[in-house]
Design a protein that fits this description.
With 164 residues, the chain is of the alpha+beta class. It is built from 5 helices and 6 strands, in the order H-H-H-E-E-E-H-E-E-H-E. The chain has one domain: Electron Transport, Fmn-binding Protein, Chain A (Pnp Oxidase, Chain A, Roll), CATH 2.30.110.10.
């Protein structure tokens, strides 16, 4: 877990605000014992690499979903892709995105937000690279001629938990 106390508190507040703004239909599903209300309880489920379904939008407003390796660091998803990919073009023009991490019926963590491309000008760049290098035992920048790393800044997120 990489989150500071302030980042955990921010995630907790966002989870609470997001659930309260959700539709009645969503709140009827993510309710009672299925509503994971604690950021501290959620974070251990997000450690390491998690395959995310990432949704972007085409120039014609058509949704596109693809899978990415997601790493939850400091209260936000980080992920990478090739700069020549459709999702890289989508994110460059329209940085709004949604991500879903779903672990069968055990857990679902759904996030909407704005994506930023990470580079060495970002204060967290070295820490993100250090995490990715340690996880994959290689530097993601060596995986192709235009590998890009991104961060999804959450503006909305909710967590569903299945029966224990």
């Amino acid at each position: 877990m990489y989150e500071t106390s302030a980042e955990v508190d921010r995630l907790q507040s966002l989870m609470e605000a997001s659930h309260s703004r959700a539709t009645g239909h969503l709140r009827s599903i993510i309710s009672g014992s299925h509503h994971l209300t604690s950021a501290r309880e959620l974070l251990p489920h997000l450690e390491g690499m998690r395959v995310l379904s990432l949704a972007t939008v085409t120039a014609r407003g058509e949704p596109r979903v693809s899978a990415v390796d997601g790493h939850f660091l400091h209260g936000a998803w980080t992920f990478g892709t090739d700069g020549h990919s459709a999702k890289a073009r989508h994110l460059s023009a329209r940085p709004s995105a949604s991500a879903a991490y779903i672990d069968g019926e055990r857990l679902g963590f759904f996030t909407h937000g704005t994506v930023e491309r990470l580079d060495k000008s970002d204060d967290s760049w070295e820490g993100v690279l250090e995490h990715w290098n340690a996880y994959y035992d290689s530097d993601p920048r060596t995986w192709g001629d235009d590998v890009r790393l991104y961060r999804l800044h959450p503006s909305w997120c909710v967590a569903y938990v299945g029966e224990a």
